[in-house]
Amino acid sequence: MQKILIIDDDNELFGLLVDYLQDEGFSCAHAPDAETGLKKSAESRFDIIVLDVMLPGVNGFEVLRRLRSSSHANAVPVLMLTARGEEIDRIVGLEMGADDYLGKPFNPRELVARLRAVLRRAGAGKPETQAVQQVEDISINHAAHSVTANGKQHDLTGAEIRLLRHLVENIGNIVSRDFLYKSIFGHPAYPTDRSLDMLVSRLRKKLGGRPDGGERIKAVRGEGYVYLLSGEQS
To answer: Apex CA 163: angle with CA 3 and CA 195, to 5°?
Structure first.
């Protein structure tokens, strides 16, 4: 049974969801505020976290930031709950490392579908072979969701490690935007959606430049992204 931590101050909503989610094969824990949620995430292992943006006191974005900077939950998938129509919340959440979002009010069936989709993508990102991979001067630890570049270790979110894995599996070849959207976010690329570009930007900052000073990840206009080794044209 997969374990979910729901961080939301709406006790009535949790009461309605818990029976439904348990019938769907999930085990649920509840935290009504940020500090309780962070404490529970540190004390127990969860397969996924459902996080409301509008929490009393410390908001959901700050909770997400702390989760992504922690050693125990930096790679745990996070689905954020936002007010319907608040696109800025969705954009900020994705920029900070959320894996998906869902607007309130929502149908419990849609929540279950999104939870399962996020968990499938997270599972698909697990390496089948070597846990640690060396690509020139960077060392990628797939199991620990971390990368060492320029002598510094950086923790990666689930989406970041999946993106990096797809790119280094196809070094020198363009990986299409549509493929990356479907494999990382679970939906096709939409013309106005910049989620992938923001994800690439975050990953670039963590990787830094190549040993020869060139960029590691190049955007190919209208097509996708390509990972380049030293000496390859950027």
So the answer is: 85
